[in-house]
Specification:
The chain is α/β, with parallel strands linked by helices. It is 53% helix and 13% strand.
């Protein structure tokens, strides 16, 4: 069986998990690049990659996956596209798409590029966070797929099928708006819940002893790496600010209901919000 050359730039949770499953399920030899030498050592030791690579390795690669912080993706993608052959798929996996698509719009090898966002992850980071089956039965969003050569797009779709993912096409601007509401806002909320509890409750043992499963699940995302999320919040700031304005308005109204002892309004607000169970159940059934 002929081994395809896969170059992964960025060996954290997403890049590392992709490498593990693609090596296991496909015929790939994986070359890894990461600016952190320790990440490279760990990725080799854990069997995530087959060998350390350099940027020159992209020249004859079948696939190049770019899994670096979102504010670095556009420039790095352009540099990679400058070096690849006409048959190489170059794909990013960032959670903000519009700035990347805009930056690469006029690149001479734009047809080699696929803007993707696999909707999967955990609160952990680094090569040691990489796990198999992370992407199974999840959705990957592809943006501006029509701008990719059909053979390149077919290669991207085949790769996600190997990862057992479903694929949806979306406009990058719409993607960034929707993802701000259902993903990025969740992370802001979790970070700020954790911050608030740490500021109000100085007894760390009390936090540990009294933390229910509800608190643990709600604050789980606050364990995510700041180095990953700061660029995301900045790159998608317009949409996140809009979602935060609505969130703050709802928090203020809820606070007023509690202050006023308005049981009817509190009950009505929570009853209305219970509809989220129906929405999420539908998503799970669809999956």
């Amino acid at each position: 069986m002929t081994m395809e050359k896969l170059v992964i730039i960025g060996l954290g949770l997403i890049g590392g998990s992709m490498a593990l499953d693609l090596k296991k399920r496909g015929a790939f030899k994986v070359y890894g690049l990461d600016k952190d030498p320790e990440h490279l050592k760990k990725a080799l030791a854990l069997g995530i990659i087959d060998q350390e690579g350099t940027l020159s390795d992209v020249a004859d690669a079948s696939v190049v996956l770019i899994a670096v912080p979102v504010d670095k993706i556009a420039a790095l993608s352009a540099e990679v596209l400058d070096r690849v052959s006409g048959e190489t798929l170059v794909m990013d996996v960032g959670s903000v798409k519009a700035p990347i698509c805009q930056a690469l719009e006029k690149h001479s090898k734009r047809a080699n590029f696929v803007a993707a966002h696999p909707l999967a992850g955990t609160e952990f980071s680094g090569p040691e966070a990489a796990i198999t089956t992370l992407f199974d039965d999840k959705v990957s969003i592809l943006c501006e797929a029509d701008k990719a050569d059909w053979r390149i797009l077919d290669k991207a779709i085949s790769l996600f099928k190997t990862l057992k993912m479903r694929i949806k096409m979306m406009d990058p601007v719409e993607h960034d708006r929707h993802i701000a509401y259902v993903s990025h806002l969740s992370h802001v909320s979790s970070f700020m819940l954790g911050k608030t509890v740490l500021e109000i409750e100085k007894n760390e043992q009390a936090i540990f002893d009294m933390a229910s499963t509800g608190f643990a699940s709600t604050v789980r995302l606050a364990k995510s790496a700041a180095q990953t999320w700061t660029p995301i919040f900045i790159q998608n700031r317009e949409n996140i600010v809009k979602s935060l304005e609505e969130y703050i308005k709802n928090l203020s109204a809820f606070k007023s209901h509690i202050e006023n002892g308005d049981k009817d309004q509190l009950t009505q607000t929570m009853d209305d919000t219970n509809y989220i169970k129906t929405v999420l159940k539908g998503i799970q059934q669809d999956t």
